Amino acid sequence: MTSTIVVNDIRKYYGDVHAVDGVSFEVEEGEFFGILGPNGAGKTTTLEVIEGLRQADSGTVSVFGQSPWPRNTGLLPRIGVQLQASSFFERLTAREQIHTFASLYGVSGKVADEMLERVGLADKAGSRAEKLSGGQAQRLSIACALVHGPDLVFLDEPTSGLDPQARRNLWDLLRDINERGRTVVLTTHYLDEAEQLCDRVSIMDSGRILESGPPATLVRGLDALTRISVEAGALPEAQARELFPDAEVSADEVSLTIATRAPAPVLAALAERGALAGLSVAGATLEDVFLKLTGREYRA
Amino acid sequence: MTSFVSLSKAMARGFVRDRTAVFFTVLFPLMFLVLFGGLFKDQTLPKSKVLQVGSVAVLDQIPADARTELDGVLEVTRSDNRDDALEKVRKGEVDAMVEQSGGRVVVHFSAADQVKAGTVTGLFSSLVSTGNLAAAGVASPAFTLEPQRVEDESMQTIQYVTPGLLGWAIATGATFGAALTLVTWRHTKLLRRLRLSPVHVGSLLGARVGVSLAIALVQTAIFIGVAALPYFGLVLSGYWWMSIPLIVAGTLAFLSIGLLAGSFAKTPEAANVIANLTVLPMAFLSGSFFPLDDAPGWLKVVSEALPLKHLVDGMRDVMVRGEPPGAVLPQLGILVAFAVVVSAIAAMLFRWDDV
Questions:
Q1: Chain B: closest CA distance from residue A87 (Å)
Q2: Residue B141 φ/ψ region, left for φ over 0, alpha for ψ in the -120 to 50 degree band, beta for the rest
Q3: Tens of pLDDT along B224-240?
């Protein structure tokens, strides 16, 4: 049984710009896979090559064991694509949009209506796509990508430009899609999104994959410091330095922060002294992974 | 087949709900029809206004029945102030001032409006001749003049402008429809989204062609319906139905122009400009609005290369000039050939994506 997607050393150059410069990875059936990186890292181009929108200059791509290039109409019904822009027919209502897309795949209107319901847009069915909010348009776009029940779904930065509430709602929807057994490939420049959703991520920068693996494994592999903060005054700074000589201690008017590789004894000591007011514990994030890999701050 | 139907529906809905597009493809040309058809309905010359100073024998001694006939074309007002009357002629308030001294009938006119000047001098020249004949005692002149137009009596302005403006309306609708669909859909990445669905390119193009043909036929029905109202008085000749194949071929020709424009343009705004720059000058050069009879020879040669010229010519032939269907086969052939060649070029330049 081969993987759902096998990408082998693909390259795509535009003149001197190496948009994709030797990328390889595999995505297993049922996996939630993320391609993570700042804008211009080559995520979208990579996705376009896999979807069959572009031909790689070199390297091979196989989706369900077939080549997506040139336009493979046998493959297209098995994949669902949500594009970066919300691409709709002008002046059509949400319901008309999804019905039109459904009919392109020979899917009935009833199924289309159910899908609209599932993404929570039933009450917006009569609104034109142009009148929907950013989150609603994004959900409609995803509904249109899913209406024909594809086995593999591509989502290109689905939450960019959404407010935090709309993002959370969309995350729930995406988890639900994956839990129903679909393979999901997502690109994002939000590190927290990748951490929250993906089984496995590949971190991309300048057209190359720097590191791949489950988010938790990547973070753990950093052997990074854990930051423990309590309210300022809960424990005098001098006493903290004395207690935890191996840790980095810093303090300001608001909080006292202890950064350590061994958080357990620190927490125990703080608890013993009743100094847990306003406690917060922050581990390393993918941001730290990116910083370590590229030597520079992550900027979306 | 289902994708063809649903894409056609989507395009048709998008068009009908676009007020600007509906206005410019249907109402705007119709406004011109109403304007031209109403304004130039009775193409008789307006009465010439003449100020008479002192007594003028050819006017004063005219028989009563001839006077009535003259009143239909000439409006004579008496004036006592000669300088004031001349000033009015200079300002263009009246067309001429007439006075008589001895045997000379003097007509003062302004050269600013040559048509009116010609009319009024011609009129008085004829009055003077009639007066001379009467004075010479000639009762029945040896020669009389009887003007007769070549077209039958029904060839009113509306007969000329209906096919012309309809051709322009169809050209606008088809060109803009094709160009804007292509560019807008590429711009919003809808075209890319469709490429990722199993839809056949033929269904996509077929839907656009089908919707444009439907729009063209609706335009035709509305135009003929309005022009045939008693107020405008369009009278169709027997083989008017032959205009339908012409309209179909013409629509295809303009769709191909739109597709070509859409292949070049990157944004909907640019497509709009290109389509405008193509269709509007073409309408003028093809005799949509006014005849090209007086145009210089090179312009007529240029107009032969324009599809709208052949569409409008063909439609005029069968709709109002009463030509038999076979007479417009050359125009039909040219339109089809144009559509085939330009579509082939557009197909070669077709891009799904901007990059």
A1: 5
A2: beta
A3: 999 999 888 888 988 99
The pLDDT of residue B154 is 45
Q: Where are the beta strands (DSSP E) in chain B?
A: 48-53, 74-79, 96-101, 104-109
Give the span between the Cα atoms of A24 and A74, in whole angstroms. Answer: 24
Contacts of B353 in chain A (CB under 8 A): 53
**pLDDT score of B217 more than 70:** yes
| Average pLDDT estimate for B257-266 | 91
Gap from A207 CA to chain B (nearest CA, Å): 18
For A135-202, the DSSP string reads HHHHHHHHHHHHTT--SEEEEESTTTT--HHHHHHHHHHHHHHHHTT-EEEEEES-HHHHHHH-SEEE
Q: How many CA atoms lie within 13 A of A232 on its CB side?
A: 6
Q: Which residue has the higher pLDDT, B355 or A75?
A: A75
What confidence score (pLDDT) does residue B147 get? 62
B chain contacts of residue A20, beta-carbon cutoff 8 Å:
none
Amino acid at B263: S
- Name every residue in A having a CB less than 8 A away from some CB of B: 51-53, 71, 73, 76-77, 79, 81, 83-92, 96, 99-101, 103-106, 144
- Helix, strand, coil distribution of chain B in percent, nearest 5: 65, 5, 25
CB contact under 8 A, B13 and A96: yes
Contact A105 B197 (CB under 8 A): yes
Burial class (CB in 10 A: 0-12, 13-18, 19+), B303: buried
Q: Could you tell me the residue ranges of all domains in chain B?
A: 2-41+156-349, 48-135
- Is the pLDDT score of A85 beyond 60? yes
Q: What is the mean pLDDT of residues B319-343?
A: 94
The reply to whether residue A91 touches residue B18, judged by beta carbons under 8 angstroms, is: yes
- Minimal C-alpha gap between A90 and chain B (Å): 6
All residues of chain A having their beta carbon less than 8 Å from the beta carbon of residue B188 are 85-88, 90
Question: Can you give the pLDDT at residue B153?
Answer: 47
Listed range (A79-88, A100-109, B57-66) with the worst mean pLDDT? B57-66
pLDDT at position A247, please? 85
Give the DSSP H/E element, type plus range, for residue B290: none
Considering the four listed CATH numbers 3.30.565.10, 3.40.630.30, 1.10.287.1080, 3.40.190.10, the one that applies to the domain covering B48-135 is 3.40.190.10
Helix axes A94-104, A109-118, angle to 10 degrees: 130
Cβ(B262)–Cβ(B269) under 8 Å? Answer: no
Per-residue pLDDT band at B45 (split at 50, 70, 90): low
What is the complex's ipTM, to 2 decimals?
A: 0.84
Q: Say if the Cβ atoms of B192 and A83 lie within 8 Å.
A: yes
